[in-house]
Amino acid sequence: MATVDSRTKYWEQAREQGFDLSWLSQLQDHVMGDGVEEYSANDTGRVQGSIPRNNVARFGAYTFRTKSEVWAHNLTKLYEEFITRQWSSATDIPWETIQALPEDIEAAECQLATFFTQVEFVASDVPGRFISTMSPDYQEVRLALLAQVMDESRHLDVFRKRALANGGGLMRMTDSVSDVVGGSTDNAREFTEFSSRLHITGEGNVLTLFRLGEMMAYNDAEKAIYRRCAQDEARHVAIGVLHLRYMNEFSPERREEIHCYLDEGESRQATGAGGENPAGQNQLTSQALAVLLGGGKDKMDEGQNILRAIRQRQTKEYFQRLKSAGFDDRIHNGRVSPVLLEQYKAAA
Amino acid sequence: MYGLSQILLPLRLVMALEEEQQQAESEGNEPAAAPEAPPSANAEPLAWMKDTVQWGVRAEPGKHGLTMRDLNVGIYGEIPESSSDMSRRPRGAFPIPGVPRTDLYALSAKVDLWADNAVDLYEEAIQRRWMGHLEVDWDDITPQPIEVELAMRQLCTELAQQASMETDIIGQWLHKMNYAYHEVKTFLASEIFDTGRHYTLFRRRALHNDGSLGLESAGQFNRRMMETRPGWTEVGMFLYMVRGPLTLLLYRYGEAYARNRADKFLFRKCVEDKARHMAYGMAHVKYAVDNQPPGFGQGLGNLMRGVERDLVRDLKDPVLWEALAIIISGSVANMAQGMAVVEDFKQRYIEDYLKRMQWAGINKTEANLSPDLAAFLRREETAEAGG
Q1: Extended beta strands in chain A, E state
Q2: For residue A130, pLDDT beyond 80
Q3: B212 and A30: CB-CB below 8 Å?
């Protein structure tokens, strides 16, 4: 082991040979700060905590460069869970358990699978768009989002597989654009707006449905699909809840703005507009769900009753998310959608 | 198409829907079913049960399970040369007329993004997934002499930034890709997932043993990749045929000169991931050169004339190379020997770059290479390293 004196000596000798080594001294003296900066001046894409250099091209015109716009606590832990709980739609689903189903049931399964194949694309594209507009100094958020993109890709993949694995096929696409009032997840340009729409409302509703997958599954393969997708979806919803919780705590001045996003989300949840909620009223998918839940096209009454209970469950879980994020005042002050409030009371 | 007898909605369901609609309207919310609602929502109950372009598909699992390639049967396997569908309709799903556009997908031609191997690489990415925070034996990484520790921190900082830049670059383009080519989109999703893992692990490696991060990257080529706008093919050429070989060689040398099993494992797994990324990228660039109008490949070659000057500027920056020389030689005192290996590294890198460009059909040879890059080729090999 070299002593400090001898090291100094041969570092000097190396410099005399033409080596630069100034970086070595910089590294030796570099002390990284604790925590994440409130404002990111990073415009070169450097790794958070690395040593900036003067002669590097400035190309990182990141749109999101304040912590309060994007941050959430505990995302590192959540990201590790993303990594740990990845699964394969090819090998982790017992496809061999799928057997021929009555034609109306197969059609309903395929219609629902077509819907999920389509909407999971949304949840893949839109988070992806935000990653590259966010300063790398907030890498924890970027990591959670890119892990979500991976999950959603697997979801569209697994539902496409389901539609094409059992003698059926893809069915009717979903019109997710007509009838949308106000902003949409697709069009969101602001991260909190996007997250409240996608994570809190949109994916929250899908999560409830996946959790109840046992009720609409007709074999072990479908049960496995819903169970695994529910685990994934819970992480995505957690991104939104953790972010809103942070906003509530550190950006209280934006609470009213966030309530506006929630107003719109609730309106869509109550009416089914936008087609994001497969259990929403008067949706193509709600008919398919009624067939699956009831046990056939001639038992849709029963299926519709179960679907009504699912909507109530969706609302109950949404209210729980509001409470967890610190936005449950809207439940008590008359701001929450009356339709959802009725559903919540009915579920109690 | 297939036939199912149509049935009317049960009366109770109709009444329930009407009741919900009246309730919503009376409370000032959007009506449950607007007059323009899609056909499925009103006129013909359960009409959707007939709405399929191809029925009776039964994709069979193979020895690797039920893969995405297994699904490409019948009309579901027909990859369009271009798609004007801007509605996010899954390929092969039943279209409905009058659906407004969801987005404007700039990359809607197969030639702009396609590679035949993307579908298999996507499945491979998932089946070969790994968990660095658990699988790397971090306790095995014991402190090295300070110079080697510092050099390793610098190398890992550089690799973390390369991974992060890759995330940014793909993130800029992924949402512009039309859904008709979901094989490519899902593969690229797996790639940014990999880059996230690489970033995390190299950052963690740099910080191990009470470490800290080193200097940021030189950055000229990063800017080139980030600011390129003409198309994904151009970006792909930069990312997979210029930057990719450099990253891959750094991983290979990292594995070859690792001083413990943990580092060796880390670099080896990253080699696997990076090789997969480059397999897609090279296949895509070749596909584009083969299928774009004549002169496209020549244009890519011409584009490289300026790009190579950016690359030269980065390659002349001493920080990464001196760090690598110290890691290879084990000390500053012996870094002259280490630098000889680094010079071999650079030569291999440029040779690799030329071979890959030529494989893709781009006329890039020593004769038309930037003189500064060509200089790396004109030297005697002094050492052998890497895989």
Answers
A1: none
A2: yes
A3: yes
A132–chain B nearest CA distance, Å: 4
Closest CA to A307 of A330, A268, A328, A277: A277
Q: Nearest-CA residue of chain B relative to A297? A: B7
The two three-digit tokens of residue B302, written as one number: 């011409």
Beta carbons of B99 and A177 less than 8 Å apart: yes
- A150–B193 CB contact, under 8 Å: yes
Exposure of B210 in the CB half-sphere (CA atoms within 13 A) = 4
Residue B22: count of CB within 10 angstroms of its CB = 12
The tens digit of pLDDT for each residue in A134-143 reads: 999 999 999 9
Residue A134 sits in a domain whose CATH number is 1.10.620.20
CATH fold for domain B110-377: Ribonucleotide Reductase, subunit A (1.10.620)
Assigned domain for A193 exists: yes
The 3-class SS string of B62-130 reads: ECCECCCHHHCCHHHHCCCCECCCCCCCCCCCECCCCCCCCCCCCECEHHHCCCCCHHHHHHHHHHCCC
Category of B98 on φ-ψ map: left (φ > 0), alpha (ψ -120 to 50) or beta: left
ipTM value? 0.96
| pLDDT computed for residue B23 by the predictor | 41
Q: Does B26 touch chain A if contact means CB atoms closer than 8 Å? A: no
Give the number of other Cβ atoms within 10 Å of residue A77's Cβ: 9
Shortest distance between the Cα of B318 and any Cα of chain A, in A, equals 7
Q: Count structural domains, chain A.
A: 1
Alpha carbons A315 and A200: distance in angstroms, whole number: 11
